[in-house]
Amino acid sequence: SVEEDVKTTMISFLEKLSSSNGQQGVSVQTWNKGSDPCKDQWQGVVCDSRNLSVTRLFLDRFGFFGTLDVTMLCNSQPLAASLSILSISGNNLSGGVAPEISKCKQLTRLIVSGNKLSGNLPTSLAMLGNLKRLDLSSNEFSGEFPDLSSISGLNVLYAQNNHFNGSIPLFDFSNLYRFNVSFNNFSGRIPDVQGYFSQDSFLGNPELCGKPLTRNCSSQSIKDDNSEVSNPPKGASKDQILMYSGYAALGLVIILIVVYKLCTRKKGSTEGVNKVAASGDHGSGSIEKTSISNASSGNKSGTSRSELNSMASESGLVSQSLIVLTQPAEVNELRLEDLLRAPAELLGRGKYGSLYKVMLDSGKTVVVKRIKDLATSSLDFKRKMETLGRRKHPFVLSPLAFYSSRQEKLLVYEFQENGSLFKLLHGESRKGFDWSSRLAIASTISEGLAFMHQELRDEGIAHGNLKSSNILLSHTMEARISEYGVMAAAMDDQQSSSSFAASPHDPRNNALFKADVYGFGVILLELLTGKLVKSDGVDLTEWVKSVVREEWTGEVFDRCLIAEYASEERMVNLLQVAIKCVHRSPEARPSMNQVALMISTIKEEEEKSLIYEV
Ligand SMILES: Nc1ncnc2c1ncn2[C@@H]1O[C@H](COP(=O)(O)OP(=O)(O)OP(=O)(O)O)[C@@H](O)[C@H]1O
What we know:
The chain has 614 residues and is an alpha/beta fold. The protein has helices at 4-18, 70-75, 77-82, 219-230, 237-265, 305-312, 329-332, 336-341, 378-390, 421-426, 435-456, 486-495, 507-529, 540-549, 559-563, 568-581, 592-612; strands spanning 45-47, 54-58, 85-87, 109-111, 118-119, 133-135, 140-144, 156-158, 163-166, 178-180, 185-189, 207-209, 288-289, 323-324, 344-349, 353-359, 365-372, 401-404, 408-414, 471-473, 479-481, 534-535, 538-539. Strand 1 (45-47) and strand 2 form a beta hairpin. Helix 13 packs antiparallel against helix 16 (568-581). The radius of gyration is 28 Å and the shape is globular. It starts with a helix and ends with a helix. Residues 347-348, 350-352, 355, 367, 413, 415-416, 420, 465, 469-470, 472, 482-483 line the site of adenosine-5'-triphosphate. Residues 341-602 form the Protein kinase domain. ATP binds at residue 369. It is found in: Membrane. This is Putative inactive receptor kinase. It holds the Pfam family LRR_1.
C-alpha cells in the first residue's frame, strides 16, 4: 500500500483545495485516513500497476475554491517521485503556483486551466524537464512568462486568457503542436513560429506584432519583410529555390495558355466556355466560373530548367476556367491566372503529380495538386469534383476549386499548417504524440470516412489513396482527410470508361470501399505501433499479424504509448479493429460505419477512465 506520508500529504493537500478561510468546502468522500488511495480507489487518483504509488491526480471540476498548495504536494518526496499528471482544471482555486512545483520532477502534464490562479509563474517551471503539456489558460496569471525553451519535449502550451505581459519567450516551435497565448497583454514581435501556428494563437494581445498577425511591427520591420522577398536570406536558400522554380514554372503555364488562346481564338473554339450546370445543387456548393481571358504573363525570374522543360512539352494544354466550389471570400473570386501567377513552392512530387504551396494575393495560402496524364476524361473528372464539392464533412478537406483539361488537372485545397499524420508519427515530435491524441485522430478519420462512404456509395466514389500522408492536421491539430476521391477517379477509370455511373451493387464498386477500409486499418496500425508501413522490406500488416498470432500482442505497441501508461486494454481493442480492417478478404472487412462505431466506443471508455479509472 501507499506510504503513510503520501496519504497524509494528499489529505492535507485536499483540505487546502477544498476550503478557504476556515470555510468548510467540498469533501471528497473516498479520501480518508483509514483507507488506501490506490487499493480503495480514491476518487480522481490513478496509481501504478502494482498499486504502490500515486501517478495521476484528476481533480477537474470538483468545485474546489481553496488554494493549490504545490509546496506541500511536491515536498513529499515519494509523491513527487511518482506523480506524472496533475490535472485540476475547472475549479475556483485562487492564489499562485509556488516555485516548489519544480520538485514534482516527473510531471508530464500540469493542467490548471479554468481557475482564478494569479501572480507570476515561477521561473523554476523550466526545471520540469519531463513536461509535455502545460495548460494555464483562463486564469488570472500576470507578469512575464518564464523561459521554457529548455523543456525540449513540451508539446502543448496553453496560456490564453490571462494577463501575462512582456514579450513571448522562445520555444522549440517544431516540437510544440498546440500553442496558444491569445488574450493576454504580451507585447513586441512574435518569435518566428516557422509557420506552425496561425494568428488564432496570438489574437487579443494589443501590443503584439509581426507574423502570423497582420499587424506589422514598425516601418523598419516592414522593410525587413520586403527584403526577404527580393533577397532570400542565406539560411533558407533551398526552400527559396524550390519556391522560385515553382513560381517560374507556373508563370510559364500562363504564357502557354495565353499563346494557346490566341492561336485557337480564330477557330471560334468554345471549349473554355462550357457552362457548368449546378444541377441538384442546394445552395451550399454553388459553382462559379471565372475567366482567364486577361491572363498576364508578369512572372519573375529565377527558373528551374527541368520544371520549365517538362511544362513546355505539354503543348496540349487546353485552357479552361478555374471552377470554384467553395465560399471563403479569398477564394470566391479566384481566377486561374491569379493562381498560376502567385508565388509557389514545390511541396512534393507524388506518384501521380506535384504539389505546390501557393500564396494568393489575398494572403490566403492554398495548395495546388497538379495531376498529369490522368486517364480520366475532362468531363468525368469535372463531374466527380462537382459531386465531391457538394458532399462536405468537417473532417474531410473538400477541394476549393479545380481546373480540368484533357492532360492537365489542378486541384486547390486549403493549406494545412501542421503537416501530415505521416510526419507527426515518423518525424521528430513523435514522442509527444500521446495515446489520447492518437485515439482522437483515429476516431476523427473514421467518422469522416464513414460519412463520405455513405454519401458517395451510389456514385461509387471511394477515397482511393488512403494513407497517413493524406491525413493532414489542421491548425488545431485535428485530422483532416485529404484528396478524397482524386485517385479513385484515376484508378477506376483505368478499368471502365464510364465508371461514374457505376451501380451501387457492382461488386467492383464495393471493392473500392473495402480498399479504403484496408487503408484505414493500416493507418490504425501506424498509430498503434509508431512503425513505418514498410521498413527493411517488412510489411507492417504482415508483421503485426504474425506477432499477434504468436500471442505477443503487447510487443506491437509503440514504446512511447507504453511509457505513458496508456491503457493496454483499449490499445488491444483498437488493434482488434485494425486487424479486422486489414483482413485479407475484402468481404470480411467491416464497413466504415461499423468501424466508426467501434472506435467511438473505445474513445468513450477512454474519456470515462481519465476521470474514474484506477
Ligand atoms: N493541403 C495541404 N496542406 C499542407 N500539406 C499538404 C497538403 N496536401 C498535401 N500536403 C503534404 O505535402 C506533401 C506532398 O503531398 P503529395 O500529395 O504530393 O504526396 P503524397 O501524399 O506523398 O503522395 P500522393 O501523390 O500519392 O498523394 C505530403 O507530405 C503531404 O502530406
